[in-house]
Specification:
Length: about 190
């Protein structure tokens, strides 16, 4: 479970949710590309450099193209093209903040599994990453949970206040999910809980 933020180029007057959906669809269909697009690769490298140069805790997740190729029965080069996005995570916490840099958009996933005190510290890092990505790419930051484009100069408290109650509720959600289910012949008990 994560709080997701997406960065991309938003045409004037366009609906951000629709644009994001189209970008995901395009990314999936572009797995059929026969070669990498140099300009997009350069942008991904520039974003990666901008994020990792000032934060040594962010590291690139190494893609195992040989394993991908073997499992999909494709060549290593086809695997490299199909999985050409760059994934970053925090070295001290691989289950922490994760950033995926695609050809035409970036996603930032913020896990809910942090204590309330840590949430504000974690979001300070997230905000720093969002600002760097916006500067490097000219993208806007879209918050699908709030369904709005964020203004990074003023929306920090709004996002954090939306994140914290959900993060605080995660232990209950996980405990409920781990609970025993009623035997199949008592299916009605699940409905009244």
């Amino acid at each position: 479970m994560s709080y997701d933020l997406d960065l991309f180029q938003l045409p004037p007057g366009a609906n951000p949710a629709n644009v994001l959906g189209d970008l995901f669809d395009d990314e999936l269909s572009e797995y059929q590309l026969e070669h990498l697009v140099a300009k997009k690769e350069e942008r991904k490298e520039a974003v990666t450099r901008a994020l990792t140069s000032e934060d040594s805790d962010l590291v690139v997740f190494p893609m195992d193209y040989d394993t991908i190729a073997a499992s999909r029965r494709i060549s290593r080069e086809e695997a490299r093209i199909a999985y050409r996005h760059v994934e970053l995570h925090e070295a001290h916490d691989p289950e922490g903040i994760q950033i995926a840099i695609y050809d035409d958009f970036v996603t930032v996933a913020v896990p809910y599994n942090h204590e309330h005190r840590e949430a504000s510290e974690m979001f300070q890092d997230v905000w720093k990453y969002l600002q760097k990505i916006e500067r490097e790419t000219g993208y806007v930051t879209y918050d699908p949970q709030l369904d709005c484009i964020l203004d990074l100069s003023s929306d920090y408290d709004t996002v954090l206040s939306h994140f914290i109650p959900i993060a605080d509720d995660v232990p209950r959600i996980l405990a409920q999910a781990a609970g025993e289910k009623a035997p199949w012949w008592r299916f009605w008990q699940e409905w009244i809980q």
